[in-house]
Amino acid sequence: MNHAAPQPSGVRLRRLKPALPRRGERALTTPDLVLLSLLAERPMHGYQANLELERRQVRDWAGISRPQVYYSLEKLAQRGLLRAAADAAPAAGPERRVFQTTERGRRELARALARENWTGARERPPFITWLALSWQATPAVVRRQVRRRQKFVAAELARERATLAAVLQEVGHPYHEAVWAVRLVVEQLETELRWLQKLSRELPHRAMARHPAYAPAEM
After folding, report:
1. Which of 22, 23, 76, 161 is the most exposed place for a label (fewest CB within 10 A)?
2. CA-derived radius of gyration, the chain
3. Rounded distance, CA 187 to CA 153, Å?
4. pTM greater than 0.85 (yes/no)
5. Closest-CA residue to 203 (of 146, 151, 132, 152)
């Protein structure tokens, strides 16, 4: 998430087509895009980028590990999407070399963000899978698992509320993508916690389907 003020890029997003990798190139991954966005804010070396991603709790909303950061830095630099600062020592390696996003990198990031797959996917949370199969568990196990989920969601909700307060203080206004993203998580957790409380009350009434239907057996 960008904690800086939006910068005009001169790119007309409505004219952008989804980015396609060149022959022999792999498509930009989520770690690549996260780093292109972060280093468009300000130049950083790999170690600082890792610290900043940890400070922003990036792993709550994007799958990126410390080794992936250094791999992506080298990959993006080789493709001309990042450039090393003029005074950076080439032998220092990605951990200490200072990188910043190039104009080409900004364009590729904008194209990647125009892809439809960002808005057309559904998550498959493990708890939903468990719930669908829970009729095979004993009632005591079901109650215990629901309580565990309630405890987890309550703890995550408290953490995200604290994160929201910190982001609001840092950003200084509520109209920012970091604020919107954390608020979405907070409201999702609040909704699930209310739903779990309702589920706990309804568990004693759990019953088999009265009119089950199955796919035909004939081939």
Report:
1. 23
2. 23
3. 12
4. no
5. 146
Could you tell me if 46 and 69 are in contact, meaning their C-beta atoms sit under 8 angstroms apart?
A: yes
What gap in Å lies between CA 153 and CA 34, rounded to an integer?
26
For residue 170, the one-letter residue type is E
Please name the residue that has the structure tokens 């990959």: 75
pLDDT tens per residue, range 152-173? 999 999 999 999 999 999 999 9
Q: Contact at 8 Å (CB) between 82 and 100?
A: yes
Q: What string of H, E and C letters represents the secondary structure of the chain? A: CCCCCCCCCCCCHHHCCCCCCCCCCCCCCHHHHHHHHHHHHCCEEHHHHHHHHHHCCHHHCCCCCHHHHHHHHHHHHHCCCEEECCCCCHHHCCCCCEEEECHHHHHHHHHHHCCHHHCCCCCCCHHHHHHHHHHHCCHHHHHHHHHHHHHHHHHHHHHHHHHHHHHHHHHCCCCCHHHHHHHHHHHHHHHHHHHHHHHHHHHHHCCCCCCCCCCCCCC
- 92 contacts 49 by C-beta, under 8 angstroms: no
The token pair that represents 185 in the structure block: 């998580």
Which tokens go with 7? Answer: 């910068």
CB atoms inside a 10 Å sphere around CB 58: 18
| Distance between start and end Cα atoms, the chain | 51
* Rounded Cα distance, 105 and 109, in Å: 6
CA distance 55 to 11: 30
